[in-house]
TrEMBL record:
InterPro entries: BioC, Malonyl-ACP_OMT, Methyltransf_11, SAM-dependent_MTases_sf. It is an enzyme of class 2 (transferase). The gene is bioC. Residues 289-300 have a biased composition (Polar residues). It comes from the Bacteria. Gene3D superfamilies: Vaccinia Virus protein VP39. This is Malonyl-[acyl-carrier protein] O-methyltransferase. Belongs to the methyltransferase superfamily.
Length: 300
């Protein structure tokens, strides 16, 4: 499915370094967060819920916790947990965890969530999943922790994100300088393979503009959204290459501004019912049942 791999340690370092500066640059993240919260009405109005509020809510890739605080505001009686792989981000998130409506903070990876099977009513993630290259492990873990009928709602970046910056570097050399992101169809296939039910995906493109290319690069560093492909060049980029990239990017200036495209995929799906099969990478399917559900099924 995906032909690239991310350096997970580099991803952790990038976001750890950006913990203090993140909220100075997260305008797009806040905009997408609002749209993602709108999707939670599917959970609130689900006939399967019968008006029941969630007991446990996870915010995976919570960053500085601004979105986690909004989830706690929406579901004040729920156990709301901010999950992030970068400990400095979780330390920064403490500022959003008020004493009246606190949320828990857990340092963990999305592919290894430290929660029991079928223990989560709502799993929310805003612009985090693009930093995970093993979609089978990611969505398999989502399906594992979700209760049957629980909701997964997330956003992620699509492959057209930063296409201008990528093209500017491509005009200079053939090396990888900009992170790559997966197509919506690959994401949807991975969700189905994991057994998630009734996935719905939408895509929207945003164009942000800057006075000069350096302003975009400063924003990416401030967010921690810098290059983390395992195949990236490990040596410092020469000044001549860097200046040539800036010149190539300048040629794309429109109406006096430098454009940057962000392709945002927003999606939701439901936790599978007990025993629903999931597809295996090598072919075939596997279903799982609790031991209690098998009592009395043995012939005597």
């Amino acid at each position: 499915m995906n032909e690239f791999h991310l350096d997970r340690a580099q991803v952790r370092r990038n976001f750890g370094r950006a913990a203090r500066s993140y909220e100075q640059h997260d305008a797009l993240q806040r905009e997408v967060q609002g749209q993602l919260l709108d999707r939670l009405t599917f959970y609130d109005e689900s006939p399967d819920r019968k008006g029941l509020l969630p007991e446990r809510v996870l915010d995976v890739g919570a960053g500085t916790g601004r979105g986690t605080a909004q989830l706690k505001q929406r579901y004040p009686k729920a156990e709301v947990v901010a999950v992030d792989l970068a400990l400095p981000m979780l330390r920064a998130a403490k500022a959003h965890s008020g004493w009246l409506k606190p949320f828990r903070r857990v340092c963990a990876e999305a592919t290894a969530l430290p929660f029991p099977d079928h223990s989560v009513d709502l799993l929310h993630s805003n612009l985090c999943f693009q930093w995970i290259d093993d979609l089978a492990a990611l969505f398999g873990e989502c399906a594992r922790v979700l209760k049957p009928g629980g909701l997964l709602a997330f956003s992620t970046f699509g492959p057209d994100t930063l296409k201008e910056l990528r093209a500017a570097w491509a005009a200079v050399d053939g090396h990888s300088h900009v992170s790559r992101f997966l197509d919506m169809h690959d994401i949807g296939d991975a969700m189905l393979n994991a057994g998630l039910r009734d996935p719905v995906l939408d895509v929207e493109r945003y164009t942000l503009t800057y006075s000069e290319p350096r302003k975009l690069l400063e924003e990416l560093r401030g967010l921690g959204a810098t290059h983390a492909d395992a195949a990236r060049e490990r040596h410092l980029t020469g000044k001549s290459h860097y200046r040539a990239m800036l010149t190539a990017y300048e040629s794309m200036r429109t109406d006096g501004r430098i454009p940057a495209t962000w392709e945002v995929v927003t999606a939701h799906a439901w936790g599978p019912p007990p025993g629903q099969s999931r597809r295996l990478p090598g072919g075939g399917e596997m279903a799982s049942f609790s031991l209690s559900s098998l009592k009395g099924s043995r012939r005597r």
